[in-house]
Specification:
The chain is α+β, with helices and mostly antiparallel strands. It has one helix and eight strands. An eight-stranded antiparallel barrel has the order 1-2-3-4-5-6-7-8.
Length: about 150
């Protein structure tokens, strides 16, 4: 094979390889983009009961817009935005006159999440120096796991 033909062949192989890699790269990111877009703006995935864990555990009861209540300090939870797996909102507690914000990163299947919360107001103080914290959310489910099913008689 002469050198001109070798250079052309190498060029063609490099071009085809680059196209294959680019094409494969696009396909590989497609499914994750679709699953992330599935929940974009669809707040109904937040409806139901969630266990909020931050030292202790509290049950949040949310409607199909991601808004609801919890019993600790007569708490309220309000969803402001759901974008992909990022859930942003506000919380308030009537009994101790506090409110703030939160941000949660949901799992790919939207059944749990890791979050951060902060204060925006404590009583009349609209610039509180107290810090917030982190929490974990888990969707409550009534589905019985196979391992919990009693054996047949």
């Amino acid at each position: 094979m002469n050198s001109t033909m070798s250079l052309r062949l190498a060029s063609v192989v490099a071009t085809v390889g680059a196209l294959l890699l680019t094409g494969c790269g696009s396909r590989a990111t497609g499914p994750s983009a679709i699953s992330a877009d599935y929940s974009a703006g669809d707040r109904s995935i937040l409806a139901g009961e969630w266990v909020y864990e931050d030292g202790g555990a509290v049950v949040l009861r949310l409607d199909d817009q991601g808004n609801g209540t919890y019993t600790f300090k007569d708490g309220r939870f309000e969803t402001m935005q759901l974008n992909g797996r990022t859930w942003i909102g506000k919380w308030s507690q009537k009994e101790n006159d506090r409110e703030g914000g939160f941000r949660v990163t949901l799992s790919a299947d939207s059944v749990e999440g890791e979050g951060t919360w902060w204060y925006e107001r404590i009583g009349a103080d609209r610039s509180p120096s107290e810090k917030g914290g982190t929490f974990h959310l888990t969707r409550k489910t009534s589905v019985t796991r196979l391992g919990d099913t009693p054996p047949a008689p």
